[in-house]
Amino acid sequence: MRYIISLIVENKHGVLAKISQVITGRGYNINTLSVGPSEKSDTSRMILTFDCDDKVIEQITKQLNKLIDVIKVFLIEENEKVERELILIRVVRKKENEQSLYNLINIFRGKFVDVTLKNYVIELTGHSKKINAFIENIRPYGIQDLMRTGPLALPKFDIK
Amino acid sequence: MSDKITGAQIIVEALKKEGVDTIFGYPGGSVIPIFDILYSTPDIKIILTRHEQAAVHAADGYARSTGKTGVVLVTSGPGATNTITGLATANFDSVPIVCITGQVPTSMIGIDAFQEADVTGITNAVTKHNYLIHSVNDIAETFKNSFYIAKTGRPGPVVIDIPKDVMLAKAKFDYSMEINIRGYKPHTKAHPNQIKKVAELIEHAKKPVIIVGGGAIISDATNEIKQIIKKCDIPVTATLNGLGCVEYDSPYFLGMHGMHGTIPANNAIQESDLLIALGSRFDDRATGKLSTFAPHAKIIHIDIDSASISKNVNVDVPVVADLKTALKDLISILKDKKHTEWMDRINEFKKITHDIPRDKKRVTAIEIMEAINRGVPDDTILSTSVGQHQMWAALYYKFKYPRTLLSSGGLGTMGYGFPAGVGAQIGNPDKRVVCIAGDGSFQMNIQEMATAVINCLPIIIIIFNNGYLGMVRQWQELFNEARYSSTCLMQCKKDPSKCKGAESECMIFIPDFVKVAQAYGARGVRVENKNDLDEAIKAAVKNTDGPFIIDVITEREENVWPMVPGGSSLDEMLKGGRTL
User: What is the ipTM of this complex?
Assistant: First the structure.
């Protein structure tokens, strides 16, 4: 099952290394990881996702809680959050399927952010499931490169 | 103090404020400024070990035996990397240590400078926390936080990495700040509802067993545990690091449980209907096969570390709290109980015997342990390394008091015992320290003989000398058709034809430990007959100005019994003999 963990951590030297150490050192795998400043300048927020069972996620949560530089750990419940992921994707530009590509981007509410004679770069945000579906649909057009941010997630209400 | 002083001076002032009177260390280029200040600081004694690993083990032994925080000071690069095994040992067994490592100057970090190592990166996995100090203004607060983190909650080692230029920069010294670490607020008090649930389960249990772990000793909960045992008539077993919490000859004490646990302890756990785990973490060596561990029991687990709860076994009533505080709360609501039938059953378990070899050609383990029990004072601190001798000490030594066993339980560090004994003797000048070692283990930190001699430490080193890495040899005998691959310590590679195999009576001493003692300016005797054991121990106890080695030539292939083979249930014990 997919789990989303949100962390508030000290914004200082070596914190990311400690977090990845405590997870990988116990044989667990981080699926996605996003880090950025939080609303306060001296803390950062991280969103990590894992594919694991509930026993493993319990252990991960507890181990993260033990880290001195981790201020708060939230396990974000699936139906109590807003979730968005950003993807940038570069596809081959071909005359014969341009119209159907436009249609596809429109259906998914994506955007063209760059165009050259040979490629398009497309931007799309949404729930990770939508991103997955988009990738499947655009694959036949010839994906040259893609980059996903991993999901960001915020609880819908204050769970402190 | 209003004048500015150097970072090195701030470090020493902080150590004084923390009440540190002893540092175990080893100098080097990057820590010269701190050693320079210590040169004129008579309040702090420096114990110069002969290896940085031993410095950490010594600080560990000092901490475990005194309850204080051990302090280590080493240089950058190899000085720091040599501490890793010591830090990992202390981290596993929850021992409070503050380890100060020098670092190359800030401007040289990251350029692959001479004796540079990424110390915070390397020590992340083996410490409770670590710091790299960037500014002289951060030293005082970092030290205050480090000592607090090391000692509170589930204790553990904290590394402070300090670049040399930070030691030389100047700042005002102020140690009056309040400790406020946002991400670290250890629980101490148990939730009253949980304590109520614990009391209810105890009240309804018919076959309860208490498991005491190292946490019982760390939290100083010995008296509370003894009260509960008596009040509720509950038998008690200990993990390796829980030994000493309840005295050996208490009618309630079952001995250690686990892979080399006693028959009554393992049987009691398997038959019990309620396990009350106090400051233990259900290590795999203690539980045996998890799916059949204590199959009829509900499990109560009181521990300060929530991550230890339901990690290995599923717990019915978890209590996250300081053990002593939680047990005090529990005692206030516990009702008196009697478990006559269960205690009768326990006494039946105690009658089942396992193989204890005696009167063989050479000395056997029980003969040494009984001689030690007869010959040393009650409050002796016992340190062990890792292997057969460690298990024999755990099974047969008559522990009376907490903080009298120093043993690497979690990491299983060979070579731990002797330097840990050095630290314990420094911290307990009025007590006797006996280091039980194998001939293999002792050689892993044998250089500390110099530290013991120079500091006039009357440590008694008793070597179980069978010329083997005995525990591995035992496994090879039982599970690898006696193919003794690389476990004979006397096998001569130069002329293999001379080696007549494991059964031979070759008596090469590599090294001759009596001569080793003499080479270091210490005393040593060899004992080849069990009748000479008492006299040797008597001579060692009389000796008070330096270490004393007793090199006991033991049965070469004695095994530790009972034994639960890996992957078996606790009640599937091998009780002796050869199973080939």
Answer: 0.91
